[in-house]
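pipeline/complex-builder :: batch 7 item 3
reading input block
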Amino acid sequence: MKPSISKGTRDFLPDEVIRRQFIFDTLRDIFELFDFIPIETPAIENLQTLTGKYGEEGDRLLFKILNNGDFMSRVSDDVRMGGSSAELLPQISKRGLRYDLTVPLARYVVMHQNDLQFPFKRYQMQPVWRADRPQKGRYQEFYQCDVDIIGSDALMFEAELVAVYDQAFHRLQIPVEIKVNNRKILQGIADVIGAGEKFSQFTIVLDKLDKIGESGVAKQFDEMGLSSDQINLVFELIKENDIAKLEIALNKSETGIKGIEEIKKVKQYLRTQEFNNNIIFDWSLARGLNYYTGCIFEVVSPKVNIGSIGGGGRYDNLTEIFGMPNVSGVGISFGVARIYDVMTELNLFPDSLEQRTKILLMAMDEKSHQYAFECVVKLRHAGINSALYPTAAKLKKQMKYAHERNIPVVGIIGSNEMENQRISVKNMDSGEQNDHQMDDLIKLLS
Amino acid sequence: MKPSISKGTRDFLPDEVIRRQFIFDTLRDIFELFDFIPIETPAIENLQTLTGKYGEEGDRLLFKILNNGDFMSRVSDDVRMGGSSAELLPQISKRGLRYDLTVPLARYVVMHQNDLQFPFKRYQMQPVWRADRPQKGRYQEFYQCDVDIIGSDALMFEAELVAVYDQAFHRLQIPVEIKVNNRKILQGIADVIGAGEKFSQFTIVLDKLDKIGESGVAKQFDEMGLSSDQINLVFELIKENDIAKLEIALNKSETGIKGIEEIKKVKQYLRTQEFNNNIIFDWSLARGLNYYTGCIFEVVSPKVNIGSIGGGGRYDNLTEIFGMPNVSGVGISFGVARIYDVMTELNLFPDSLEQRTKILLMAMDEKSHQYAFECVVKLRHAGINSALYPTAAKLKKQMKYAHERNIPVVGIIGSNEMENQRISVKNMDSGEQNDHQMDDLIKLLS
């Protein structure tokens, strides 16, 4: 039987796991610095929880799990004979795989509201599954990493999340731009140009600015029925650097004014600290999702042309669908797969990551092997990650293994070394070779 | 809509995630000390990879994923009309959820054999899914944690794995007994009592010794057709402490002699080191799985009546089914859920785990809040996990939050403190309260 892997999924080699673990560990440290605490939810959710939450396409892309046992036994005869897949589905499947971390968070908050303290500041790093057509860089199983504050509308948290982004990417050594806007300002712009009723469509078009440029956006605004005066005014307003002037321009829109007030308050919090990266207020930033109701964020790395590596915003109704209305929240997510790609491209992973094992001991004959085993026990007792090649194979073969495993130091042990209680230690990088006693070697490798 | 969770699955509260993470981090450190490297495989595997590997019951307990799209369109008419669930299954589902970490490891090794160096020492900590009937302490989604060496029959690795168990449980502070046996010795015992042909059944019965005692085992041996002389000899042999005497007793069985030799060699490796826990050679240890062909291991915590918290052994044919014969391997696994329960029962988790956030700042009025925000920024810049309550709510409310969040220290900031550039710091445990300047506070909390 030829082994195969399900299309759209992938195995991770040790170096990849170690590098991704480095990203997770770094993010976890930062999240905890800012008082976020972790939760985990199951991979399997009731379809009732998931269906209808991600639009029609989302419903299609949900992985559904077949009911266990004799799943056809409860299918009614007419559905069995003539029913479509859609009609059969609810009778043979009641569970699906987690599609994102947001809907499970909402379910979690409602179900555990009596065990949680609000504001509830949680982070979550788990895989999600989507039956997207697999293509380069897009998988059906991938990690999401979300940070949210639930149950407070304090704008302090918007500033905190900007700082989380800044510190996290600084720690990962990825230079980024953190863009900030507020959906209420966008509503204000739509209002004052007289397109307030078409707000949703307006933001969807504006969101494409990066991809299709001003002329492309202008064309689509035109197709929406906006006049060239209206379109020109949009471009004027989204480029207005002076917030006082923008405030005057939006003063006919109640929502717009509210947005300006929120941004001012966030700026006030941001002013009290120094950032490692540029924080850019960008009134053209739209984020596709209607879901957001206040500040929105997006992170790009100007050094790499890969799109956004983070995004988020404030939402007002996360938990309403599960019967808990009026809970405001704000959150950001980290695009772990893209962060991984950026760090690979910019060569930002520490070399030491891949060299977990500090030394490989090699024995030259059977008798030395027993002694070498005693040596590796001692090294490990001293807390040094170390290995012993399992047999007294030819030195060349053992060397090849050390080389391919990327182990930085080897210790060669033959009858001579055994007699003198020393180890012949070779640096695989420099080729330098020296004899050491065990105590010296431990010091050298500590 | 009332939120619900799929039966047999569970959410993890922050304290639970943190404690489990502590177990994983500790195990990872030990695994890397012994030169093991991590891999990850996808949750979704082709059913072709999974089916038939876990016996009939396993096939039933596999979670199957419904094909995406119009899954009924390719079902033939006769199967649609009259087919059983079993006949319909292959036409509507081609993928399933990972059931254990062993079969995916075999697939992985075969598929990536050119990218791996052998001996390949890997660890893997990922969830698996089984459609078992949910009951107390048994879930449909749970973590497995496996450590294996693939591609070497060196008995040194048996000794290494015993040391991994010893160090891991020592680090977790769980006192354990590590039991060791060899399936070849069991075969030898079966041979010399004249039940060599019934070996599989023999081990299945012997495996129940802990549960049903000698009389229960004797009864089942009797039902197998063993005479009382044969049964008595079994009990005599499994209690033989002197390995030299056992060797003589088994000298008619070639396999038995091989088993004795292997155990002697392992003992020789074990003698060179000191262990924190008892290593017990127990000839009655059987492990249910026919899969094992050499040494077998089992770990129990004598302080807690919860069954084994680890087990493993040597197997000779892991990858054969995927077309790569004659690859010997040896591995152990850690029962993470039970380890969690044991540590909870014995109160072994460090208190500090749940106190990730070292201090919560509280502002007494709006103006102080802005100043308090500057303070929390400074604390975080100094690397201290810290929080600021988002509003100048009543002190009682903020105190309640700190208390329920288990935050050990609070810093109270009002107009007085702001004027004097000090923070009134209260230890939540002792109730002690002192004024501090920011620099002092940073030192205090570092």
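note: Residues 292 and 385 of chain A are 48 Å apart (CA to CA).
queue -> next item
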